[in-house]
Each structure stands twice: as structure tokens, then as C-alpha cells.
Amino acid sequence: MENSRDIELQPPLPTDASGDATSGDIGLTHIILSSVDLHPSCTKPAEIHESAAERQNRGNAVALPPVDGGVQAWTFLGLAFVLESLTWGLIFSYGIFQDYYTHHPPFNKSSETAIAAVGTVSLALQYMGLVFIITILERWPYIRKGVMWAALALCCGSLIIASFATKVAHLIITQGILFGLGGAALYAAVLTLFSEWFVRRRSLAGSIMFGGSGLGGAIFPILLNALLERMSWRWTLRIWAFGIAVPGCIAVWFAKGRMPIVRNQPSQAKPISLSFFRAPLFITISTTLFIQAIGYFPVSLYMPSYATALGLPIIDGTLSLTVFNLASTTGQLIFGHLCDRTPYIRVMVISAVGSALSAYLIWGFAHSLSLVFLFVVIFGGLGGGFYAIGPAASTDIAGTEHSNSVIYGALCIIKGVAVVLGPIIATRLHNPHAPIIPGNTKDFGGYGFTTVTLFVGGMMIAASLGSILSMGVKRWNL
Question: Is the pTM of this model over 0.85?
């Protein structure tokens, strides 16, 4: 009688004479037993020459959970979704804090640029710190869990310390720098785990995980606005720190990798190659990503302020940011699904062209709440969906020579620089002293945002051209 099976096994650590596992530079080599013949005749000594060490290694081999599916993979994805929403969701909701800090003491006498810097610095550090932390975690993966706990503590502690701030500089250090560093470390650990669980369905799974930031950015503004209206900003930060700590501790406790941890000796660890920086495809995609991010992020930052400039109630500005982030989540899910089935560069073109058209044709004439909502739905969905290309692009650029996690982190650094520059440029272009009502509701722009609108649309046109150029580079295999 013959049986066949496909089992993916992970060999255990070699043992010394005492039976204890030894440490060393041991690779995570996969053993795939495909269609193994289990007929008794195959076990005759004359036909199988197996050493005692091989028999011990085979007998102690550990079965790995399935990749791209199964209870454990989807459980991890759910936990990653929670951690994503807790870290990125708050940063994407900073527009609520910015509007509050601008109009209430003790920060209302500070410059708009300084107040905006709190959210900008936090967002930039969370992007830019990824590649460095990922490099460390891939070199010493056994410290990953400790880093996650320390990062979560830093996120919560930074908000508590920020609640005692008396100057904007204090907020930049705490709510900006410290929270950004904690979020970057926590997110980097999640990314290294994510790459173990999903391969073929990485774009879709990545979009689901990244959707946590959009969902958090959709729900958190409403909750933050309610807290700020009912109690001081100081207690809002303290309550939010507790709100991050509870679900965050649960998620970190249960989050785990698919592969067994092996304590590689740092001196023998495989060096990470950065030669991909010279690859034409990386250059064109990263440049396009940079341009797109410069135009995209000022919109989420200024939506509450734009609604206020229209003379709308504060709650309408909050809802506009909520709808924007929710549309971004939906766009990432849809575009992530498309990236698994169509060329991701085609998704880039659709996103960039649609974003440019919505900026010029809708935001430029958005003189009512209904048009504001229409704009944030279309621009948020198309512009936010652009970032669903990250996993697919990283894997494509990496090939078999590089780490896709490192490449993704490098793209995040580039995006982080754009996150800093975009709002700074928009702040310079924004004229808060412009007339509240434009001369004619059919006119383009107004409310101090005319040049900002032109800038955003122009960046999206440039991103469209960059996407087309990337398509040519990939097609011609440059």
C-alpha cells in the first residue's frame, strides 16, 4: 500500500553530546517532502543509507503552519490589523489635534507650522525609522518580541508625558518624536513577522493589514473630537494612552512568527545588500512614490481646517477626515486585490491620474459640504490605494537577491521624507487670512487653499508621468 503526502518541515537545532541545542549561524532551511513513498520495501537498509544524525534530525523535525492561509496566518493578520490601527490610526487623525491646538490655549499663540510639525515629525519618523529597525530585527530576530513590548510602552508613555506639555516644543518631542519612534519599532516588528506568513497573497493580505491605519483614521477622529469637547486635551491624551495599551498588549502577546527563532551569531549573519538602490525600477518607483506622497499627505492634514474655512461646524471637519481615511482603507483593499491579479504599475497609473482629476475638478470647486465629501471619497480612495503597491513592488524589485522587507523599509524612508516636505510646502502655500467666501462659487479655489489645490493636483500629474515611466522601465527590463 502506498501513501503520499506534502509536509513542510523545519529541522531543529543540532545538539551537542549532552543533548542541548547549540547556537551558531544556522540557516532556516526548509525541507519539503513531496510525494514520499511510504511502502515498507522502501525502508530496507540496502535502499536507504541514513546516518544516525539524519535519523535524529528527521525524527525531531518541526512541522510548520501553512503559508498564505490557515487559522494561524489569518489570526496573525487580525492582530497586525489591530497594531496597525493603534499606531498609524492616531497619526492619521492628528488633523483633529492640530485644529484644536491652533484654536485653544496654551498653544493657540504658536505658529501653524510649529503645530503641524508635531504630526509631521511623528509620521515621518514612523516611516523613516522602518528600514533601520527592520535591518536590526532581521539580524537578531530573537529580540523581536522584546522590541514590540518596549515600543508599545514608548507609544503609551509618550502620550502620557505629552499631556503635561506647556509648549509646542514639548509636544514635538513627546507626541511627535517619541511616539513616532515607538510606532516605527512596533510596526517594523510586525512587518518582519508578516513576511513569514504571506507570499503569494501578500498584496491582498498587506492591504488588509494596512487598512487598519485607515479604519483607525476613520474612527479615531470622531472619538478624539468627542473627548476634546467633553474634557481637556490633557486627559484626552491620557485616556488615549490607556486605549492603546489594553488592545496593544493583547495583540503583542499573541502575535508570533511562522518560523522558529534561531539565534544567529551577529558576526556570521549574512550582510544586507543595498545594491538595489541602483536598480532603474527602484529609482523610478521610489521617485514616483515620493512625488505622490508630497501631494497626498497635506490633504489629510488640512481637511478639518478646510471645512472650518468654509464656515462649517467642527463636526463636519471631523467627519470629512473620517470619510477620507475610510475611503483610503477601502481603496487599499480594492487596489491590493488588483495587485494580486494585474500588474501593480497599472494600479499606480490609475491611482495617480484619478487623484489629479479629483483635485482639479472637485476640490477646486468644493464650496459646499457635499462636494467636500465627494472629493475626500474619490481622492482618499484613489490616492490612498496607491500605497497598496508597496508589497508587490518590493517583492518585484527584490527578486531573489534582496530582502523585500528592507526594500519596503527603504520605500518608507522615501515616503517619510515626502511626509515632512509635503505639509511644510502646503503650510507655506496656505493663506489663512484669505477671505472666507470666494467672489463666485463657480470660481476655482478660494478660502486660502487655491495654491494648495494647484500644488496637490500638480504632484499627482507628475506621479502619473512617473508611473508611466516605471511601466516602460519594467517592460523593457532596464
Answer: no
